[in-house]
Hints:
The protein is mainly alpha-helical.
Amino acid sequence: MSLKPRVVDFDATWRDIQGTIRGVITLDNIPRKIWNDRFSDIYSLCVAHPESLADRLYAETKQFLIDHVARLLNKVQDDGDVHLIRNYYFYWSQYSKGAGFLHSLYLYPNQQHIKVQKMSDAEMIYGSSDSNGGMWLLGEQMEIGELALEVWRAGMIAPLGSRLVKLLLEAIDQDRAQHTTNAPIAAVKGTILSFVDVQGYKKKGQLQLYQELFEQPFLNASGEHYKRDAARLLEERNVSLYMEKVIAKIDEELQRARKFLHQSSLQKVTQRCEAHMVAEHLSFLYSECMNMVQGERKKDLSNMYNLLKSVPNALSVLVDTVLDHIKTQGLTAIGNLQGENIHISFVENLLTVYKKYRQQIQEVFNGDQNFMGALDKACSSVINHRPNMGKSLCRSPELLAKYCDTLLKKSSKGISETEVEEKLSQSITIFKYIDDKDVFQKFYSRMLAKRLIHQLTQSMDAEEAMINR
């Protein structure tokens, strides 16, 4: 290939180029020699003497693409709506791949002569006028691959968009109903993703066409579907069953979104489903909340948690109900203790309640900090409870100190040092909830002094370890 500028017969050269790019855009087999010759011809036009013919080449190429897409538009519509999606996807797959090859063939003018719209740094960050084909509308030159995609958007998607979207929504509804879709799944998904890919060259707003043309109508139509589904399920008046079916529905819709949509839509689909099937029916879900908590129905509570956690502020009722239940169970556990070993029953009953609900929160609510906070509040309320409507003193500091004293005395028979160590360690759980820690310290110090004076302590190491805690 000669790099020296020379006089070129544009019409003759363009006829050769046109024949080749027709084969390129339709994915015909182009021999390597023909490809190299056309690459040289395009270069020769761009550096032609006495003046470059690059602008004329661009104009002819643009018109060729416009005419080609116009012919494809007729072919796509040949079979009416019955095969519109199938035909569209077939020609889009061919055209989009061919456009990539065409872009490579025009490498030299793309890099050296195409007047790409210059963007300031501010436009790069905050947006530019090229959304919705601004460069196309302004007559600015685009790189050939980008031009081909823009021609498709303007010549194919613009006239067919509303019909395609209607048929796409119908196909997705057929899938929901477990019916065979009129168009192959690959064609449905490929058509939807073409609304993204056709603007994939943009630095900003690549999803704008997809969102405005397809995603928003899809979400609106899906929202109406979710409302109808919720109304049908509510007729059964069974909260447990409703929750199970809604969870299954959300998962089903997410899987469907993965099958058909762009990944940016997945979270939006889930949020729309939750809005219409959960957030709009909170009073119905709450109506069974207390019974579930009091009956400690773990599966139901887990389902309720999983549904409510994504809805703003929806967990508060469940959290408060759990808090009240733990508080009630705690007060019941220490309510009517009698005998000489009240202090032992007091501490160990409270630890049993604490361990039980801490484990339940881990299992049922995935250790959610809202419920861990409820456990803390419930334990604090129970441990600092003052009987007789608040008229009596809280006995927790004294009973805990006595419990520790019993473990640390030599008289604690039948308990190994390891068990003593473990029980003392667990008693710290009760200590951390006591408000009057000074009162506990007073009782503990007094009992410690007696143990030391009367040489009743079981182990100085254990005494030291307890103080260090």
